[in-house]
Amino acid sequence: MLAGPPSLADPEIAGQTFSDHLAKAMASSLAGREQWTSTMIGPRSAVVHMWATREDGTRDEYHLMLTADYYDQWPPRAVFVAPPDVDSDDWTDPTTDSRWMPTIDQQITTANQFAFHPRYQYVTEGNAQRQLICFSHSFDYYITGHGPSDEQWWKQGRHTLMATLSRIQEALRAPAYKGPAGALNS
Predict the structure, then answer these.
(1) Residue 100 is assigned to a structural domain of this protein
(2) What are 92's strand-pairing partners?
(3) What confidence score (pLDDT) does residue 111 get?
(4) The whole model's pTM is what?
(5) CA distance linking residue 72 with residue 132, whole number of Å
(6) Quick one: pLDDT at residue 124?
(7) In-domain check, residue 1
(8) Domain that holds residue 44
(9) Which of 29, 76, 108, 177 is the most buried (most CB within 10 A)?
């Protein structure tokens, strides 16, 4: 566990490293196979457009916001977002019953040290309730009281945001992926 909050990265270095690593991830064979695309939102943030696959082969699109304020000493912050509406450029936090919030079977993914919580209590941030993609290649894992094993710790220079993206993509496949939360509640 962390003794205190992590320090922000140098903005220019974090932005350049993030941009370079994102370009490499988007040029990867996994990105091509899974049809990822990305949209830069700022110098240290981007939305990666990913596809999830249900048991019956149905594919659902999701938008994953990556923020690199602590990158690459720490992993990027990763959250699912809803696309902007016609009157806005803002990507927003979807509600727990939104079409933009995936449903992932925790019994399947927990065995692989991965969990997805549509709402999780962030004690470090005034008990705020926010989304948590919970595994050691996501920044919020480290600020929510989780203690990774020595093998699980993010290692600067060894891990890149590709580790984050590939693990999330794995959770967006059947049998763990069940469909959009909104579709399951209608």
Answers:
(1) yes
(2) 82
(3) 59
(4) 0.92
(5) 19
(6) 67
(7) no
(8) 11-184
(9) 76
The tokens 């992932």 sit on which residue? 104
In a domain, 94, yes or no: yes
- Distance set, CA 148 to CA 133, 134, 139, 152, 182 (Å): 14, 11, 12, 5, 32
Strands 177-180 and 115-122: unpaired
| Token output for 86 | 């016609």
pLDDT score recorded for residue 185: 47
Residue 4 lies in a domain: no
Express the helix, strand and coil content of the chain in percent, nearest 5 each: 25, 30, 45
Distance CA 63, CA 101 (A): 9
- In one letter, which amino acid is 91? W
The SS3 assignment for 52 reads strand
Q: How far apart are the first and last CA of the chain?
A: 40
Question: Residue 113 burial (CB < 10 Å; 0-12/13-18/19+)?
Answer: middle
Tell me what percent of the residues of the chain surpass a pLDDT of 70: 92
Q: In this model, does residue 4 exceed pLDDT 70? A: no
| Domains in the chain, number | 1
**Residues 10-51: pLDDT tens digits?**
999 999 999 999 999 999 999 999 999 999 999 999 999 999
